[in-house]
Amino acid sequence: MLKPLLSLTGGLITTMALGIAQAAPLSQEDVSVAEVLRDRALESSDAYSIVESLTVEVGPRRTGTEGDERAVAWAQDKMKAFGFDRVYTEQIEVPRWIRGHAHAEVISPFPQPLVVSSLGYGAATPAGGLTAEIIEFPDVQALLKAPASQVKGKIAFINKRMERARTGEGYGPAAQGRKLGMRAAAEKGAAAMLLRSVGTDSDRFAHTGMMSVDDVENPVPALALSAPDANLLEAMLQRGKPVQVKLDVETERLSDGPSFNVIGEITGREQPEEVMIIGAHLDSWDEGTGALDDGAGVAIVMETARLIAELPQRPRRTLRVVLFGAEEIGLVGAKQYVEAHVKELDNIIAVSESDFGAGKVWRFDTRLPESKFDIADQMMQLLAPLGIERGNNESYGGPDSSVFVARGVPAFGLYQDGTDYFDYHHTPNDTLDKVDPENLRQNVAAWVVMSFLTTEMEGDLGRVPTASE
After folding, report:
1. Terminal C-alpha separation, the chain
2. What is the DSSP letter of 291?
3. Which of 67, 117, 145, 447 is 20–30 Å from 430 (CA)?
4. Are residues 105 and 161 in the same domain?
5. Burial profile 394-431: b = 16 or more Cβ within 10 angstroms, e = fewer
6. DSSP code, position 357
7. Which residue in 99, 123, 97 sits closest to 218, CA to CA?
């Protein structure tokens, strides 16, 4: 393998003095090839052109829309052009929804407009809108504990700020309000729900996102407020006077329809039935162009596979790129994929997903049996020069990947710097100019090391405890 690779790269492969024993799961030859792939990614990876193409030629890709359909066709064309051995789609059934207009304004005591966005699959107001008094809650837990008599007929305002962190760990607590707030408001007889946007910015853009809407008997309108408008509403309430807000929202829930997971494979040369899945999600919300969420991830995993496909011979095992559909509305594509392939899960040796923007990878986590830590240790010797540190063994691999991990599939997690990711997440500001080409190359360099070495290793990675164990 080394001799053909020498001619492919046009340069000398430096043998790495890693001190790796012959009994290790990765041969010195495999490590050397991975080193070359890593360096090629840093020097000449063209992942940026992939995300540029997706955002310019397709744009927003909300599930069940024409943009979603265009994205599926775009992804198939790209994979075929990149020389993947097999490109195909698998249909999934998805709920569909139309976003219409959303207007909000303070009527009294200080009339002012508010910048809002309908939350995903939310309800409309009656024709002509509705006007009601605001009642504020510091978080969704406070709303859940409030007596219905306190909430009935009012607009419940959940005013939970998200904390900024490189790990994005503030997202989960803040997103609980978006997930559960409308349901809680509806059950207590509220007229509507307003939510401080789940984000870390101070821009006057609202952050949309999905809610828990299934089985809500009488859903009410639910809107995200931009951070400055949430601050404004908070300041008005602090003056001690009742605050009346008018909402005028148009949405429509449609019948379920089709979407697709798009799949491309580099077929293994020796053990093609054994598969590593690297994934991203193809859908996006509709108010930006989905450059960070998850156009960058799409570009990273597609470019990773393209670089491996250019090698003189195929990897030992199959590398499968899965661009999941309908992630934004509840991991629908991943869940339906796992159910459709449940008998094949034992052949999936590992899974990983890129779905956290385009910041530099700074940490490498795993979800492996302890007996398999040696493979991660060997990978780290190639990842460390990229500025990546070893993390923990609690990775879920990414949102879609978590569905596989729950069934016992091992996972790798290449975690990106998310310090500013939630400034743009689910907003009109999620656009191509937020993607740094140099950071994208560093991502691909890390991904190609992890992906190639996993497909080439001796032995397997075993299984991890399932969600029920």
Report:
1. 42
2. I
3. 447
4. yes
5. ebbbbbbbbbbbebbbbbbbbbbbbebbbbbbbbbbbb
6. T
7. 123
pLDDT, position 239: 98
Is residue 7 predicted with pLDDT exceeding 80? no
Whether 326 and 381 map to the same domain: the answer is yes
pLDDT, residue 45, reads 84
Tokens read off for 118: 């309908």
Residue 387 has pLDDT above 50, yes or no: yes
Q: For 187-244, how does the pLDDT look when each residue is reduced to its tens digit (9 = 90+)?
A: 999 999 999 999 999 999 999 999 999 999 999 999 999 999 999 999 999 999 999 9
Q: Are strands 389-390 and 361-367 parallel, antiparallel or unpaired?
A: parallel
CA 132, 134, 135, 140 dihedral sign is: positive
State the catalytic residues.
Answer: 327
Which pLDDT tens digit goes with each residue over 79-137?
999 999 999 999 999 999 999 999 999 999 999 999 999 999 999 999 999 999 999 99
DSSP 214: T
Classify residue 463: in a domain, yes or no.
Answer: no
Separation between Cα atoms, residue 399 and residue 393, nearest integer Å: 16
C-alpha 46/C-alpha 448 separation (Å) is: 13
Q: Which of 275, 263, 271 is nearest to 451 (CA)?
A: 275
Distance CA 178, CA 403 (A): 21
Say how far apart CA 182 and CA 176 lie, in whole Å. 11
3-state secondary structure of 249: strand
Domain that holds residue 139: 96-254
- Which of 197, 223, 254 terminates a domain? The answer is 254
Q: What is the pLDDT of residues 39-55, one digit of tens each?
A: 999 998 899 999 999 99
> Are 122 and 25 part of one and the same domain?
no
Confidence of residue 23 (pLDDT cuts 50, 70, 90): low
Q: Residue-wise over 314-327: b if at least 16 C-beta within 10 A, else e? A: bbbbbbbbbbbbbb
